Sequence to fold (128 residues):
Amino acid sequence: MSGPLNITTTVAGAELAVLSIVGDLDVRTSDAFRDHVVAAVDGGHRHLVLDLAAVPFCDSSGLNALVHIHRHVTAAGGSVVLAAAPDRLVRMLTLTGVHRLLPLHLTARDALDALGPRAAAHPADEPA
Fold:
């Protein structure tokens, strides 16, 4: 049985945010998880790091939410990476091939560094 899901958003740049997820990603929480992340993207944070260090369990509903998030973010012209996923979740992402859509990083700092150049670029900054 899953408990409450908590998501903390830390703004790391104009279009970059780190979302720290605490709790299970399962059939009871995956809709709220997906909706929260989609709202962050629609609110202007097109580049995201999802910090999964405190996600003890993820089922197929949580995996589906991650794929939906990837599609929504890329449709918005953004990017999303995962950080600090527990070993069990890393195995699930690897076995299903989802790691090809959502790159995995050991820490949120590593993920931010990986997103840095893409997330720092803003359309208004590009030469005409």
About this structure: The radius of gyration is 14 Å. The first strand starts at residue 6 and ends at 11. The beta strands are 6-11, 16-22, 47-54, 79-83, 104-105. Confidence is low (pLDDT under 50) at residues 121-128.
